[in-house]
Amino acid sequence: MNEKIQNLLMELVKECQRGEVALVLATVDPERMEPSSVLLAGSLPEQAIAFNELFEKFKEEALAHDCNCPHCKQIKEALIGAESSSTKQNNEEKLDILLKDFLRGEL
């Protein structure tokens, strides 16, 4: 990453901190396919909200992406797997609650 971009990113982080704005940002070196920087600003709960929104938007865009190359296909499958895993966990929690209610005679 060139120096101008690095300086602009650091300026953005400082401005977000001054303005009390949460920031979750990562950049990737396209030649090495590695993160070149990860920048955070704001409180942990604010960062969590920003990260969740970023992840949901990424997931939506990735699943709608037309490319079916091996890399894109693997990403889509991982996102679908993560989605079904959380759905499975939610269903198990609901089942536990229903069983407890049933055993207490509340159903």
What does this structure look like?
A hairpin with a 4-residue loop joins strand 1 (23-29) and strand 2 (34-41). This protein has 107 residues and is α+β, with helices and mostly antiparallel strands. The protein has a two-stranded antiparallel sheet with strand order 1-2. Helices cover 66% and strands 14% of the residues. It is flat and about 65 Å long. It has two domains: 1-64; 66-107.
Secondary-structure element order, N to C: HEEHH
Main beta sheet strand tally, sense and closure: 2 strands, antiparallel
The assigned structural class equals alpha+beta
Q: Give the amount of beta strand, in percent.
A: 5-15%
* N-to-C CA distance: 61 Å
Number of helices: 3
Q: What radius of gyration results from the CA coordinates?
A: 20 Å
Q: Which terms summarize this structure?
A:
single chain, 107 residues, alpha+beta, 2 domains, two-stranded antiparallel ribbon, 66% helix
Concise summary:
By secondary structure, the chain is of the alpha+beta class.
Topology, element by element:
Elements (H helix, E strand, L loop, with lengths): L2 H16 L4 E7 L4 E8 L2 H21 L5 H34 L4
